[in-house]
Every structure is written in structure tokens, then in C-alpha cells.
Design a protein that fits this description.
Blueprint: H1 24-39, E1 42-45, E2 48-51, E3 57-58, E4 65-69, H2 73-76, H3 79-84, E5 89-92, H4 96-104, E6 108-115, H5 121-136, E7 143-148, H6 154-167, E8 173-177, H7 178-181, H8 183-190, E9 196-198, E10 201-202, E11 218-219, H9 220-229, E12 233-239, E13 242-245
Parallel strand pairs: 1-12, 2-4, 4-5, 5-6, 6-7, 7-8, 8-9, 10-11
Antiparallel strand pairs: 2-3, 12-13
Length: 248
């Protein structure tokens, strides 16, 4: 395989454009325009189910997406076993070989990119450079999922989302972890170049009160309203690259 042996420890990586001098909202406008040129002024959500380390499934049976977290693969017997069980999407970061194996089996790869508010620009740039190097060496990543370590800060998150869209045009999808970011920050991020919400999509949801206050689940209607509130057309993704527009 042409991308075998790629390592995140590689010392030399291509330099990426530096957008630090741009006003944040100019950066956002450029990122949104790049997203619209590539995908259209739209965003999506998907009903998904997760294969857990125990071998059990979590999520609706009629889900259109079946995924596994990279951290659970060892307990499941590896990628081949997960794929045979029906998984079509690998979610995780830090192991290019497993992502390459997923792509080789005609599955897709969603790369988790960790970030931390307050980290140095050099540290973040190094992480982006490493991801770019993997892409340039032939790892066909379907999407990138920025994942905060700790509490995300709004302006910092928006800057990262926009930078990912502009720096890495070879990766078609910038996906938002609604549970980690919260619905409001996720909605704002749609205006900075992101194009898909990553959240449990359910038929019905209890009110977010008491112990249910931080429930990240959303109904189809809630997801569509959130997307439209960002000025985009709402679609439900019904396959790897198949979409159905949500009725207003």
C-alpha cells in the first residue's frame, strides 16, 4: 500500500499558509466561501450507530451510518472484525495505518484532531502540518473531527475550524462534535467552514432539564433548525455521499 509506514512522528512536514494575520471574521468568510465552492451552501447530519468495544451496538437500528472508535478496535479483534460486523466508518486519530486499512476495505475515515484552548501556535501548527503530510502522502481521509481537550473557547475553536477548511482542501468534510462543543458553538462553527453535525440523532428527546440538561441528542427537526439558523440548507446524509434535503 502506497501510504504504509506513514508516521505522525515524521519530522519534516510541508509548511502551511499562516492565517494568523487575518481578522477572524475575514478568515471565516474565506472558509465559508471555500466550503460553498466545494460542497454548496449546505450542511448535514446523519443518524448513526456505534459498535462498542463489547461488540454491542449503541444507536438506532435504522441508522444510516455505522462507526467504530479507533480506541475500541483492539477489544473487537481489529479493523477487519469491525468491518465484517458492519462498520463503514473509522473514527479516531493517531494511527495512520488503521485509517489506511479502513480505506483499503472501501470504508471511510474520520480523523479526530485534538486541540486545547491556550496551546501554543507552534504546537497547533505542528499538528496541522502532520495531518497535511499524511494527506499528501496518500491517506484519503473523508473528514476531520476537531475534538477539544477540556473546555473549548469560542474564538479559538472558530479559528481552528476555518483554518482546517482553508489549509486542508483535500479533506472534504469538517465535522462538528456537538456533544463536545455544545449546540451554540457548533452552530457558529457552521459559519466558519464546517459542513456536518456529529451528534446522536433521535426520534424523540426528553427536555434538557435536571440530569438531562447536557444530553447531546438532537431530533432531525432540531438539527435542521440549527443548520438553517446558520444560513445554510439542511440535509440528512443517507449514505457515504448521498443526501436528502430536509423539509422546512
Amino acid at each position: 500500500m502506497s501510504n504504509a509506514g506513514i508516521s505522525l512522528a515524521t519530522a519534516t512536514a510541508p509548511a502551511l499558509p499562516d492565517f494568523a494575520s487575518l481578522d477572524l471574521f475575514e478568515l471565516g468568510r474565506r472558509a465559508a466561501a471555500a466550503r460553498d465552492a466545494q460542497l454548496g451552501p449546505r450542511a448535514s447530519f446523519v443518524r448513526s450507530r456505534q459498535l462498542l468495544a463489547t461488540g454491542a451496538w449503541r444507536g438506532p437500528r435504522d441508522a444510516r451510518e455505522s462507526y467504530v472508535e479507533l480506541a475500541d478496535l483492539a477489544a473487537l479483534g481489529g479493523w477487519a472484525a469491525a468491518h465484517q460486523a458492519g462498520v463503514g466508518l473509522l473514527v479516531g486519530g493517531g494511527d495512520p495505518e488503521l485509517h489506511a486499512a479502513a480505506r483499503a476495505s472501501q470504508a471511510r475515515s474520520l480523523w479526530r484532531l485534538p486541540f486545547r484552548s491556550g496551546e501554543s501556535p507552534l504546537e497547533r501548527r505542528k499538528r496541522l502540518d502532520q495531518l497535511r503530510l499524511l494527506v499528501e502522502r496518500g491517506l484519503p481521509i473523508w473528514g476531520v473531527l476537531p475534538t477539544p481537550e477540556g473546555e473549548p473557547q469560542g474564538l479559538d475553536t472558530l479559528h481552528l475550524i476555518a483554518t482546517l477548511r482553508l489549509d486542508l482542501p483535500e479533506i472534504p468534510h469538517v465535522v462538528l462534535d456537538v456533544a463536545a462543543l455544545g449546540p451554540r458553538l457548533a452552530q457558529m462553527s457552521l459559519g466558519f467552514g464546517a459542513d456536518e453535525l456529529w451528534a446522536p440523532i433521535v426520534s424523540e428527546r426528553a427536555l434538557r432539564l435536571g440530569g438531562n440538561a447536557n444530553n447531546p441528542s438532537m431530533t432531525r427537526k432540531e438539527a435542521a433548525v440549527l443548520i438553517r439558523g446558520a444560513g445554510l440548507t439542511a440535509f440528512e446524509r443517507t449514505g457515504p455521499n448521498e443526501y436528502s434535503e430536509e423539509s422546512p
